[in-house]
Amino acid sequence: MGQQEINILKSYGLKVTAGRAALLKVMLESDRPISHKVISEKLDGLNYDAVSIYRSLESFIKAGFVHKVEDDRGTWLYALCTCKKMGHCHPHFFCRHCGLCKCLDDHSMPVIKQVEDDFIVEEQRYYLKGICKDCKNS
């Protein structure tokens, strides 16, 4: 269990467990949003079952340091996000060839608080689709 993982969990008021620390380490090491399946594969052998992973991810989301985004195939992807906005604060890029999803942390999204009098906006998601640099060069 690394000190960075312990510090993050404590700073968000979460109980520190070996499973949560291992899950957080996987997320810290990823440079893009990752699926539950990928997380499970990376945690294989740690006796941390699928339900426990889901529960931990949900507690990370509620705490405000992880967000999830749905890809074109309906798979939820999870990524660290320390903006503390309890939702999406940046757009995402999806490669239509290889399926890569990348958080575009250096870009902001327009904030739309109300679209019509009878609608209440609860969440905003923005994404860009195209070809990633690896697919472009292959």
Structure description:
The chain has 138 residues and is of the alpha+beta class. It contains five helices and six strands, in the order ααβααβββββα. It has a single domain, classed as Arc Repressor Mutant, subunit A (Orthogonal Bundle). It starts with a helix and ends with a helix.
Task: Please give a handful of descriptors for the protein shown.
138 residues, 3-stranded mixed β-sheet, 5 helices, alpha+beta, Arc Repressor Mutant, subunit A, 33% helix, 3-stranded antiparallel β-sheet
Helix content: 25-40%
* Number of structural units classed as domains: 1
The topology string of helices and strands comes to: HHEHHEEEEEH
How many beta-strand runs?
Answer: 6
Short description:
With 138 residues, this protein is α+β, with helices and mostly antiparallel strands.
Q: Strands, helices and their partners?
A:
Blueprint: H1 3-11, H2 18-29, E1 34-35, H3 36-42, H4 50-63, E2 66-70, E3 76-80, E4 92-95, E5 101-103, E6 127-130, H5 133-136
Parallel strand pairs: 4-6
Antiparallel strand pairs: 1-3, 2-3, 4-5
